[in-house]
Amino acid sequence: MKFDLHTHHQRCGHAIGKIEDYIHSAIKTELDVIGISDHSPFFAEEEDQAFAGSAMAKSEFPSYISEVLLLKEKYQDRIEVLLGMESDFFPEHFEHYRKFYSQVPFDYIIGSVHYVNRFHIFDKKRWNNAAECDLLTEKEQYYQLIQQSVHSGMFDILGHMDGMKGCNPAVSDIQTDMLDLTLKVIADSGAAVEINTSGKRKECQAWFPSDDILERACHYGINVTFGSDSHDPQHVGYEREQVRQRLKEIGFKHWVFFRGRKQQRVAL
Ligand SMILES: [Zn+2]
Ligand SMILES: [Zn+2]
């Protein structure tokens, strides 16, 4: 059972191709399951499209849902299409987000912390003139937000969980107990951690999360899943087989995907 749960498309303003192009690519790479998980709109902002180029407009949300549901039906004999979303997590707004999600027949929601202290984690400017102590503070705040996102109970999957290293690989060398505390919180919640291969195309040139984090995740009995975080149909399933091999080497026995928000176990 081959799956990829993390894909975007042109609606967000920074990906190319239509949803259907990602489905075609998934069929071509012989996946059994393709999850569509575009970025959540900025529900708490007043404007319809507060940050064009970051996410779909609020008014696009219903058409996104109906398009994926239509394609799910259209392709049911060739591939299983799942309705997902990569949701931002803002501690001050999550109840507002929850209201929008509660009316939708999602298969799963990926919770991703993208903003720490108002800066996007993949924004290179945030690291200009940053001292080592800043890195520690930022890293701890980042993991604190991930813990809060887990406590919200809104998410089936945690997206790119050491994503902060993406544009500043040095962040990985900063030691903090917060990482292990976060892993314990995730283990208790039953949420899955995604191995996200898009980091290979960023400055860190590595998957999210790193192997050492995955080894600890395995020790704590955390479930894992896979997402290419494709913003181009060509990247669907990117390095899926290498991830599967690595997970087996680390000691994982299975990985999971979600159908109707219920976890499905697949042997590695
Ligand atoms: Zn994106
Ligand atoms: Zn993301």
3D architecture notes:
With 268 residues, the chain is α/β, with parallel strands linked by helices. It has a single domain (3-267), classed as Alpha-Beta Barrel (TIM Barrel). It contains 7 helices and 11 strands. The chain has helices spanning 19-28, 61-74, 94-102, 132-151, 178-189, 211-219, 240-250; strands at 3-4, 33-36, 80-88, 108-112, 115-116, 119-120, 157-158, 192-196, 223-227, 254-259, 262-267. It has a 7-stranded parallel beta sheet. Strands 5-6 form a two-stranded antiparallel sheet. Helix 6 (211-219) links the parallel strand 8 (192-196) and strand 9. The radius of gyration is 17 Å and the shape is globular. The structure holds zinc ion (ZN) (2 copies). Residues 86, 112, 114, 159-160 line the site of one zinc ion.
Question: CATH architecture, please?
Answer: Alpha-Beta Barrel
| Poorly predicted parts | none
Cα gyration radius (Å): 17 Å
What's the end-to-end separation, in Å?
Answer: 9 Å
Helix content: 25-40%
User: How many alpha or pi helices?
Assistant: 7
How many E strands?
11
Bound molecules: zinc ion
Q: What is the name of the CATH topology?
A: TIM Barrel
Strand order of the largest sheet: 1-2-3-4-7-8-9
CATH superfamily: Metal-dependent hydrolases
